[in-house]
């Protein structure tokens, strides 16, 4: 299977073409991978770019497996079907949640300092990530933004698993996705370059906007 995108920046430029009708949106990128996707979108559309910090809640024996997520300003969201299959309760994950909340607070401080998110009420808000596998992190982000009562809420990603897109449509006004390929295993498989980003990379990209 070939790559769909050379890198996150190219994916963001292509995604911007699908979002071109928006006016003065607030674009909230999920760091770290969503930030380089969001930068070309804001360059094309204008509006305001900021980060919306989320953290995956991992299954303790295999932390890479996300069983939930937490977003700044929101409550933890869990994949209840997966937790049932694994025999997990929310109490079993209390230490993991506490650890991820500490890291979330650290990243919010690193990326925004004392600055707060812009007011979202009544605004057109676009949540951007580099792709959706299980979608639990995006779900936590969408619910946190929805609580602020935006005028319109859109989730925009270059690539996603088909079932995940279907499951998230109820959380937002629109899901804009460029590709939902079969054989979806991980987001990175659809990018030629999918390197890990540092906090410094995120800050540099935010300054470039």
UniProtKB/TrEMBL annotation:
<keyword id="KW-0808">Transferase</keyword>
<feature type="domain" description="Phosphoribosyltransferase">
    <location>
        <begin position="23"/>
        <end position="167"/>
    </location>
</feature>
<dbReference type="GO" id="GO:0016740">
    <property type="term" value="F:transferase activity"/>
</dbReference>
<dbReference type="Pfam" id="PF00156">
    <property type="entry name" value="Pribosyltran"/>
</dbReference>
<dbReference type="InterPro" id="IPR000836">
    <property type="entry name" value="PRTase_dom"/>
</dbReference>
<dbReference type="InterPro" id="IPR029057">
    <property type="entry name" value="PRTase-like"/>
</dbReference>
<protein>
    <submittedName>
        <fullName>Putative phosphoribosyl transferase</fullName>
    </submittedName>
</protein>
